[in-house]
Amino acid sequence: MALETRKDRAQKLLSNRKPVTESTAWSLAQETYSKRLEGDIERTKKFLEQAQAANTKLERELSNEPLDEESEDLVNLLGLFEVYKSLPYMPMKNDSIGIATAASLTKNAVLEQSKAISMIRDENEATKTEIQRLENILADYAEFDELLQARVQQHPARMEELEQQLHGSRSLETELEHQIEFGQKSVDQLKKVEDKMYQHVKRVVTKLHALLDWENASMMDEDMFKESLRRSIALINRMIKSLVSQGTKQTKWVQVPAGPEEKLVQVMLRNNLIHVRNGNGLEIRLREFGFD
Question: What segment(s) does the record annotate as region Disordered (predicted)?
Answer without folding.
Answer: 1-20
